[in-house]
Amino acid sequence: MDKQELTCISCPIGCHLEVTNTEQGYVIRGNQCKRGETYAISELTSPTRVLTSTIGVKGGFLNRLPVRTNSPIPKDKLFAVMEIINTVIVNAPIKAGDIILKNLLGTGVDLIASRSISE
Amino acid sequence: MLKYDVVVIGGGPAGLAAAIEAKNDGVDNILVIERDKELGGILQQCIHNGFGLHVFKEELTGPEYAERFIEELKSMNIEYKINTMVLSLTEDKTVHAINPKDGYMTIQARAVILAMGCRERTAGAINIPGTRPSGVFTAGTAQRYINMDGYMVGKRVVILGSGDIGLIMARRLTLEGAKVLAVVELMPFSGGLTRNIVQCLDDYNIPLYLNHTVINVKGNHRLEGVTIAKVDDKKRPIPGTEIDYDCDTLLLSIGLIPENELTAGAGAEIDLRTSGPVVNESMETTVEGVFACGNVVHVHDLVDFVTEESKRAGRSVAKYIKNQLSNNRTGFETKGLEGVSYIVPQKVNIDNVDKNLELFLRVSKVYNHVKLVIKADQETVKEIKKRHLAPGEMEHIILAKALLEDKNFKNLTVEVKEED
């Protein structure tokens, strides 16, 4: 039986959660509402995050193009994805929402431009 | 001299939303003035997600949030000037501005919306001991270098202050390959949102030292290291608690200050608690026809709240231009009592309130299981139970107009009280 402590990020209250892994599944204490339980279970089984960063852009109004993943990706792949996107340079013009890289590391998640950059 | 019905100073989220709303409400002749080379303001460098949950019901990045408003503004043919610096604003609403294309210009406005936002407190504001090497940046400056200009600011980083920009930059620097050694906060609580502590620090095992501060900065040309120490309840460093860090970069995330030189120059009263202009329910300052919205009034937690406030300012300006705003100057003032550090708006003319009066306030420390008590002079008009209150989280109170109408009182007060 292992115990873990988490802070819920579902709302500004930030409940201090104590999660115990039992044979019947996770038991969560300290949450003031149901969302704390949902958060704790997802956080302990398959934590994911949206990754935002920038890539190089040539011939544009700025030197960097902000990008993001179009859905959350597994937390443990964040740095591997950073390594890939740090090698990418695109050419202006770019429209917000343009797909920069498809299916990052087989996650099914794409990297998209978060702004337009004109020539 | 150029002539406009409404001149909006600042093309960030506040100015964009106010201009769009004023145009929607029938004001045709609007000019937005922006000093940067593009519209969007600080959102353009805030590449992280989490913007727009309230306004668009989705999590956007800063540039995406800005682009939606910029596109709308352009599609409505609202005029704007970029690379343009407003030098001064006078009480008769003459705007003096300058840019490389038009040169010096004077613009006569019937109404002005102040939307200049805020700027960061710098190292000079907090008297950090030690030398003055390069490598000490405000968090927002580092954010602009990295996210827009494409320059990395350093390899080993300590961050002083746990405001949201500092927390966001801790994660950003880590993802870009820097080692963030510590985030150091003078207060016993973080000034940032809890969700940012979890997503930006805990996710990357970056330690947060509360009740600590930087007591020495070392290095002659480039920063070589800093020393931090724990502080006592009078914020004095405690000997023996020092920790030395070898680092080449120190970021400061130690607060934001509304940028109000133009406001004061126009003769508007400044509230020393918010560092922004005193405004009324219509977001009008104490100078008639000069309105203000967004971070120039008070520093907001979320851009969504800036947008909502700025839309109200835009609607009020449209009423003002159409002579539909009651200029009856009598009314009541709002006052924060025990536990409340400020309230916006500071003055209220109930005639201009539609259905509800909205108050925005901050508390001075962390509270759990308390209530906010709102009184019209001595009479309690509302009590709101609160499980949690923190200085880093702006509170929003909605009071029905019916609760306040037809009453003769001078002060609407808000205080924090223990629950019965």
What does this molecule look like?
- The complex is a heterodimer of chains A (119) and B (420).
- Chain A has 119 residues and is α+β, with helices and mostly antiparallel strands.
- Chain A folds into 2 domains: 2-45, no CATH class; 52-113, CPE0013-like (CPE0013-like fold, Roll), CATH 3.10.530.
- Chain A contains 2 helices and 10 strands.
- Chain A has helices at 34-45, 78-85, and strands spanning 2-7, 16-22, 25-29, 48-49, 52-58, 64-69, 73-74, 89-91, 99-101, 111-113.
- In chain A, the strands form 3 sheets. A 5-stranded mixed beta sheet of chain A has the order 8-5-6-10-9, with no helix packed on it. Chain A has a 3-stranded antiparallel beta sheet with strand order 1-2-3, covered by helices on one side.
- In chain A, β1 (2-7) and β2 form a beta hairpin.
- The N and C termini of chain A lie far apart (59 Å).
- The model of chain A has no long low-confidence stretch (mean pLDDT 91).
- By secondary structure, chain B is of the alpha/beta class.
- Chain B folds into 3 domains: 1-120 and 256-325, 3-Layer(bba) Sandwich (FAD/NAD(P)-binding domain); 122-254, FAD/NAD(P)-binding domain (3-Layer(bba) Sandwich), CATH 3.50.50.60; 328-420, Immunoglobulin-like.
- Helix content of chain B is 20%, strand content 35%.
- In chain B, the strands form 8 sheets. In chain B, strands 1, 2, 5, 6, 7, 8 and 21 form a 7-stranded mixed beta sheet that branches. In chain B, strands 10-17-11-12-13 form a 5-stranded parallel beta sheet.
- The model of chain B has no long low-confidence stretch (mean pLDDT 95).
- The interface between A and B is medium-sized, with 27 and 33 residues.
